[in-house]
Amino acid sequence: MNDTVDKLVIFLAKRDGIDKLVKTFQYVSKLVNWHVETTQPEISKRFKNWEVASGLSRKAFRTGRFLTGFNTIRRNPGSTLTLRLLAVLSNSGEMVYFFFDHFLWLSRIGTLDAKLAKKMSFISAFGEAVGYVFFIISDFILLNEGLMAERKLRSSEGKENEKENVKEIQKIRSDRIMRFMAVAANVADLIIALAEIEPNPFCNHTISLGISGLVSAWAGWYRNWPS
């Protein structure tokens, strides 16, 4: 119990940890609002307010986050030319997303002209979608490389390397789980971004948005939870 509490404290001390928690509030309240909208309008209104407040607070908390893309490219550019190029494209898209998200937040709280909100939302979502597409491609390339490396380790002979091979395989499998979580989160967030870029019955349905938001939040929760 104490270990779980300690991990929760560490998790919530992170910017991403708080973001995933508030994102959970945002999309749970969205689904509850939709579920009770016709039967209990007063409760529906409360959950709608919670959804809006959570969304706005997340935007405020992400102030300056677009700068992390520069640091990511600088510190982890990728092991091959292809991965380096994908890292530049994916992080550039994410930087556009976070940068214009600032103006979207300011227009929605009334600091800037409210008419700017729609345009800022489109630009932000477009950058987000582009970034997620390249993040997904990168993760699939790295997943494939991991599978090939695991097969090579399994086929290698020699008792003297058996323990080292087992450790390396465990490391590859752990990385694979994290990358699957990243793909799940990015696909979910891509659906949310597409709902803004090109509204359609599937992406814009409350259930699609709500489930996508929770998948993204909980996949991020898993990735950021202290080991």
TrEMBL record:
Q: Which UniProt keywords apply?
A: Membrane, Peroxisome, Peroxisome biogenesis, Transmembrane, Transmembrane helix
Q: Which GO terms describe its molecular function?
A: identical protein binding
- Where do the TM regions start and end? 81-100, 120-143
Q: Where in the cell is it found?
A: Peroxisome membrane
Q: Does the keyword Protease apply?
A: no
Its Gene Ontology biological processes?
peroxisome fission; regulation of peroxisome size
> Per its UniProt entry, which superkingdom is the organism in?
Eukaryota
Q: Which GO terms describe its cellular component?
A: peroxisomal membrane
Q: Which family does it belong to?
A: Belongs to the peroxin-11 family.
Q: What is this protein called?
A: Peroxisomal membrane protein 11B
Species whose genome carries this gene: Trifolium subterraneum
